[in-house]
Design a protein that fits this description.
single chain, about 325 residues, alpha/beta, Metallo-beta-lactamase, Chain A, seven-stranded mixed beta sheet, five-stranded mixed beta sheet, 12 strands
């Protein structure tokens, strides 16, 4: 199943404006990183051994979980409740998300447990710049030497290691240098595998979802969609946590309605029934993660929850 989309206006904060890199389908990998890292080794090491934030501990964000193949060349290397994904190719790999700072060793060990070398990770990607998905990126970049790719609007947050709004404000993590800016609809190509970036702002200004074609064990063609997030998650809508937030959410819901994908992957377990699907996979259902209706069902549910939250906050503000 092919994935098609139309590109709505995406929120790019003026202060974050940067030209998008030309990522041709067969363009060579970018040159080796020449700029120094933003976080020192001491800062990264201290973040790995620091006590978990209370929310991270209570929600088991860093609880160990055995890695597994989701389907084709897509592998789950995250924790019990927070996703990280390894997309493998003959010429190296993509790694999506870094969970919390303390999760970097867990992710690296999960990659090794699957028989892959972290040094072969060529691209390090981020769904969005919150501590539970970006916290471990600096350590993972140090360990792999990968090219860090992110949207323009989330880059300042990643490079500051601090979210400037919402309930995550002040929950600092080691800043990570972004080597390459990616824009809506641009692609990364490695070993014959092509990932497409879809800017889906709202949850963060530069929230980025990723899609790729993947083949099942039976040879059937599928499209996987790694959803950034479209939850409000305790953020204020009235007043907006950042300028243009409401319009960004609505543009994202409209955009996702134009997408087709039959493998829906998320970065929190409860968003996509991770435990139940994993159990089915272990029981022999090779297509446990295949569901052509799930992406749209999730989008519809998130849009309804957003509009309910917005109406409630507007009433309270009157």
């Amino acid at each position: 199943m092919r994935l098609s989309f139309t590109a709505p206006a995406a929120l790019l904060l003026a202060a974050c404006a940067a030209p998008a890199a030309d990522l041709g389908l067969e363009a060579p990998l970018p040159a080796a990183v020449v700029q120094p890292p933003l976080a020192s080794d001491a800062e990264i090491d201290a973040s790995i051994t620091a006590p978990l934030e209370p929310t991270a501990a209570s929600m088991e964000w860093n609880a160990p979980s055995a890695p597994f193949k989701v389907i084709g060349n897509i592998h789950y290397v995250g924790s019990k409740t927070v996703g990280a994904y390894l997309v493998t190719t003959p010429d190296g790999h993509f790694l999506v998300d870094g969970i919390v700072p303390q999760s970097a060793p867990l992710i690296l060990e999960n990659i090794r447990a699957l028989g892959f070398d972290p040094a072969d990770v060529k691209y390090l990607l981020n769904s969005h710049a919150h501590i539970d998905h970006a916290g471990g990126l600096a350590a993972l970049k140090r360990a792999t030497g990968a090219i860090m790719v992110a949207s323009a609007a989330d880059t300042p947050i990643l490079e500051a290691g601090d979210v400037f709004y919402g309930p995550s404000k002040g929950m600092k993590f080691p800043p990570v240098r972004v080597d390459q800016i990616i824009d809506d609809g641009e692609t990364l190509s490695l070993g014959g595998v092509i990932l497409t970036a879809h800017l889906t702002p709202g949850h963060t200004p530069g929230c980025t979802s990723w899609s790729l074609p993947v083949a099942g064990v039976d040879g059937a063609a599928h499209t996987a969609f790694l959803h950034c997030s479209s939850t409000v998650a305790g953020q204020r809508l009235v007043p907006e946590s950042y300028p243009g937030m409401i319009d960004s959410y609505r543009a994202t819901f409209e955009k996702v309605r134009t997408l087709e994908a039959d493998i829906f992957l998320a970065n929190h377990d409860n968003f996509f029934g991770l435990a139940e699907k994993r159990a089915r996979l272990a029981a022999g259902d090779a297509n446990a993660f295949v569901d052509a209706e799930e992406l749209q069902a999730f989008n519809t549910a998130m849009e309804a929850a957003f509009e309910t939250q917005l109406a409630m906050e507007e009433d309270m503000a009157r």
